[in-house]
Amino acid sequence: MSDHPVSVGTLLRAAAPDRLPEVVADHLRRHLAADRVEVLLTDLMVRSLTPLLGPPETDTEPGALRCLGSQQPGTEIDAAGRARLHLPLSCWGERLGVLRVELPERPGPEQAEQLRTVADELAVALRAADRMTDRYRTAQCRQRPTMAAELQWDLLPGRSLGDDRFLLAGQLEPAYDVRGDHFDWALAGDRLTVTVLNGAGEGLEAALITATAVNAMRNARRCGADIVEQAELASDALHSRYGGSVHAATLLLEIDLVGGWVDAVDAGSPHCLVGRSNEISQVRLEQQLPLGMFGETRYEIERFRLEPGDRLLVVSDGVHAAAPGGSPPFGESALLTALRGTRLQPATEAVGTVMRGLREFHAGAEPEDDAVTVCLDWRR
């Protein structure tokens, strides 16, 4: 029989989906002499952390929050030489939370590598287990979402995605009472498809309109259709169901991650901007009919090009058209101010900065619409 311990990946795959934190904690105590282990998950807005092994109270420790923001491990040594480590829990660019481990002393290089492996294995397992148990979603929610919000969050692809070519992030607000705004994405080789959608109406009805459009676009995309066919199938599905009484304003993008070319179908109100060096400009596209307005609507592709290092930002009308109290719309100047404040931030932080600027713009007033911000950094 081998003397080598069973790998943490093997243990996680054999565990019940709701027991992953306990499996990791037991493994680290047995094989790395950990005194204490905590698994911290982000809330829906990736602003705070909630422990899964301790009392379910928001964790505000600066080291954990720094690790979440920087996506880099951090180590703190106390006066007695004991070590507290924070390691990011991330999976394909999706920031899930932080693994905290307390050890009797600073770990050596081999131990540090083992800890990084444990964090990586746990992140993948948590992502896979999310559909099998409510434990992790419950920890992410600060309050009970509306039925519309529940439907929208289950429909989202995640909150970020990335590799060495790009980093993509999206944010949807208000988190617990959204209406019809939505974003979607899918990666296939060197092609990245991104859509931002604003379904008409309020509450659950708006969410159902969005769900119909999004699933129609996914159905077409998964059968190899381009963004024109995706838009046309979704438009026909909505028109067949609602007879033109409702529609979904949508921007569909397909990005070539090698050459930087972007194919676009502008079917409504979402706006597209590009940040290049210190300049921010709107991509001027010919606005075509929103999805579902008329039967058998046909769409056309427009094309523009990104340069290495460019930032592509897409915002729904809940962002660019927000005008609380009759003020000038957020998109006229305040959005550009918020975007300039993101210059040194990764896309995963930039979406939060834009949304924070939008909340401050409302000055405590209740937003009249939900809002989506999607940010892509093309690294090439």
TrEMBL record:
<dbReference type="InterPro" id="IPR052016">
    <property type="entry name" value="Bact_Sigma-Reg"/>
</dbReference>
<feature type="domain" description="PPM-type phosphatase">
    <location>
        <begin position="163"/>
        <end position="378"/>
    </location>
</feature>
<dbReference type="InterPro" id="IPR036457">
    <property type="entry name" value="PPM-type-like_dom_sf"/>
</dbReference>
<dbReference type="InterPro" id="IPR001932">
    <property type="entry name" value="PPM-type_phosphatase-like_dom"/>
</dbReference>
<dbReference type="GO" id="GO:0016791">
    <property type="term" value="F:phosphatase activity"/>
</dbReference>
<dbReference type="InterPro" id="IPR029016">
    <property type="entry name" value="GAF-like_dom_sf"/>
</dbReference>
<keyword id="KW-0378">Hydrolase</keyword>
<dbReference type="Pfam" id="PF07228">
    <property type="entry name" value="SpoIIE"/>
</dbReference>
<protein>
    <submittedName>
        <fullName>Serine phosphatase RsbU (Regulator of sigma subunit)</fullName>
    </submittedName>
</protein>
